[in-house]
Amino acid sequence: MCNSRRLHEHPFFDNLCKNISFSLAGEAGTAGTGMASANRLKSLKVSQLRDHDNLAIEFHPDINFIIGRNGTGKTTVMNLVSAMLGLNPEMLGRLPFRQAVLTLESIEEPNRRLEVSVEKLSTPEMKRPEIVAKVRDGGEQIEFDFDYVGDGRYLRYDNPARRRSAEDAIRYNRFLSSRVRFSWLPIQRAEVRAYVSPEERDMNPLDRKIRQIVVDMTKYLSSLDTKATSIINQFQQEYFLSMLDYSAPATNELVPIQQLQQSLFSIFDEFNVPRPLYRKRIESHLRRLQSDENSESRRLLSADTARLYTLALKWQEFDQRRADIYRPKDEFVGIFNRLFLNKSFAFDERNQPSIASREASGRRAIDLDELSSGEKQMLIIIGETLLQEQNNFVFLADEPELSLHIEWQKDLVQNIRKLNPHCQIVFATHSPDIVERYGDRTLDLENFTSIG
Hints:
Blueprint: H1 11-19, E1 39-49, E2 53-58, E3 63-67, H2 74-86, H3 89-94, E4 99-106, E5 113-121, E6 130-137, E7 140-146, E8 148-150, E9 153-154, H4 163-177, E10 182-185, H5 205-245, H6 257-270, H7 275-291, H8 295-339, E11 343-347, E12 353-357, E13 365-366, H9 373-386, E14 393-398, H10 406-419, E15 423-428, H11 432-435, E16 442-444, E17 449-451
Parallel strand pairs: 3-15, 3-16, 10-14, 14-15
Antiparallel strand pairs: 1-2, 1-4, 2-17, 4-5, 5-6, 6-7, 8-9, 11-12, 12-13
């Protein structure tokens, strides 16, 4: 892929990357590194939306619910915003508008603006309009024109004569994706793709999206394992280095025996030492510390115990860092164990979802295909949130309430914000239960639309 998984992906750019080989050394931004600048939606202005409406919206920095009666253009607006952020020329070509300007604001520098503009240029002789897209960030700007090539397609990337234009298209995408991260869940949940593998051909979009979410979650959770392993390695290194520069206390120091014992048990358990091999030795050492009357022997025991206590404190520090690494995973598992009825959720040793029934007759493994439609929808939404890795994200979704029980709808935003408090939510919804707690965050399109 050209860009990080957490950045929006589109088959258009998949194909460009596969068919074009070139270097973009020195390109502005940090695309591909997962270190995009932190920008969020500020406003959207659209002229001749559906040929007659003008639209002007100001977004809230945290939570936004686009609401309105059927036919007011909620899905059109969501598709437009996602297509502008992801540079989807086919979607931009299909959507009915003449010009759109999407303004984003920097989270670190509130007065700094990033502007994305798209304009359609057409003549009576043209089957489809030419699309002119521009991104401006301070003094930097990049522009690209999309030409219609037939069959609903823009920019035939495999035509050698268009090589330069194709390279510019990828440069545009990298320029923008290095400045804003976003997730997009259309109403069918999976992106519509021109090519679907034979294996996926008979899968509905919901199952196809779940499959991709699971693959990406496995990669992400494996990266957490790598970080946690690094913590253990650092602890081992710290331990051996401490043996070289440790100074025994000059006097007997009071050590909290019970706390020390539990910490030592935890350390040996972490390194998979069988309990019979260490438990009695630890208990014996601590008993002798409390009962030995020989002053010299007691002094040596106290020194050893103080060293062990220092080691235990260091372990607690490293163990807390490791717990912080796994906190998103633990939160995710906790959410589903609270939501699922008569089912338990976990990740196995390969970081694959492991779901089992909690019935009186016993536990039974449950395949993802057996989940209800609502459970699948929730797995997609919360899974997409987990994959944002607690970074600043714009989270776009069309009708997130689909198939969800009322109680699940009420807690949806709260669960999302628990996993990623840094995401800006922009949902198009008909659900009063999702909106209930956040009534001041609604954007009724009829209040922001005027006849052009």
